[in-house]
Amino acid sequence: MKATKYISAILLLLLSISCSTDLDNKYESPEIPNQFMDFTIDNDTQSIDNEITVTIQSGDYQSTSVRFVDEIGVPYTPPKTEPSEGENASDLDNVFIPTITVTENNNLEYKISATKLRLDEKALLEVESFLVEVKVVNNSGVELTGYDRIYFSDVEYIFNTKISFNETGGDSQTFNVGIEDTDDLDANIIAVGGTGIVSENISFIGVATEDPSDDGATATFTFELTTDAATAIDATLNLELAKREKGSVTGTVSVTGYPDTPFSYEVTSTVDGGSAPAIDFEFASTISLVSGTTLTVTITLDEMLTEGNTTAPIFKLSKVIINKGGNEPEPAQDTWLDVDNSIEKLTVSTVCTDCSVETVANPDAADAEATNVTKWTIGSTSGSGNKSLDFDFKDGEGITLADYANLIVTVRMYWPSFNDISNYDSNERIRFYLSDGVNEQQVQGKFVESNEAGWHTMEFDFTGTPSGPALTSDIISGEIRLIGNKFTNIDNGLEFYIDTITTNL
To answer: I need a surface site. Which of 102, 140, 200, 256 has the fewest CB within 10 A?
Structure first.
């Protein structure tokens, strides 16, 4: 869907130096005697492949010449064709190269043309002006001079459907997708099918439906990928996608010359709503990029199901990330608890009245992350006050004091329905404690009632300033504590489920 690239030339004939537009002001200079006006210019709007003809009306001259000047009386400075130090090739995207040639008509016709230095790159819609000087010497030996100014500018958008990996731009480069002028890819990359409609924003291009119950939308995203690197580079192609949490999508990503990589993202929540968290997709094959070769990337959405959501489904593309030499390896991660994969570096217990801990089936049958999880039950007769899920590290599995300063703990937890707490409010808090056996420190988070009854990932960052007295030796135990006296009217008890407890170490 490339738009035709063409340039319009807006010609302002300077019949008198004293008569000028605002754009002419920077060219004003003292009045020039013997102003020459006996010439015409045609083709005031032309394709980039056509020419403007300057015609001198009479042949009764000893000599004629046509040239560019920077200002009246100032020689022309040609535009640079190579980036300066600290610049990239993209800094020359809007450079036009003008040329003048003389015909065989007794030096009375001159052709003016302009080419774009980086023809395949998008223009910035800035104006480039050229001042043309026409000079003749009549048969009396008198020199006469006249001027035309030509303004070159793109008058039609060149659609943003192509991205280029800049060899000098860093090993990881991100290309944004959206409706902003500065976005690298725009809505011209998408073709919707079935009952799909284009959905676009400042941060994505996507497909949606009018009817929240509609499962009939399909779409194809297509864009081109190239580079200015003279030597081939290996790279990984990554996409930032998104869908409704309560919804599913399937499709494929294809790149010219490589096997397709399918994708399938299932329901991750049973809660109705518009939440659509980012999904990181990595194309399975390492791709090769080299200057002069263009790869076509196609994202095909075969199916988008609402899965009963009351909010219309959507599938988005937000970013394209190219990593030269491959993706960085995932940061090291240690798992403390994951009963589904038989990882139990902790001994877990709870001591509150009518409370229990057990291994059960995942309460969300549609969740693909785990089959079995740890269930923490707080019974309806457990009484008021804080509730704690305690744990002790098994021998050799604790955290050293040296590592503690860099520790981030992540808990994937299923929240209950807070409707079971008749006097729930936004002060319901959850704290993650770690102890050296004498002192303990904690990091606190809050529940969000609008996100109840589903799987959530909570992060507890101990790299900052956790609350509590400083630890002086290795960590041997801890607890997950629910804070507040809002548990006096638990109607049906509360059931929390924990899939994993992991760390960044």
So the answer is: 140
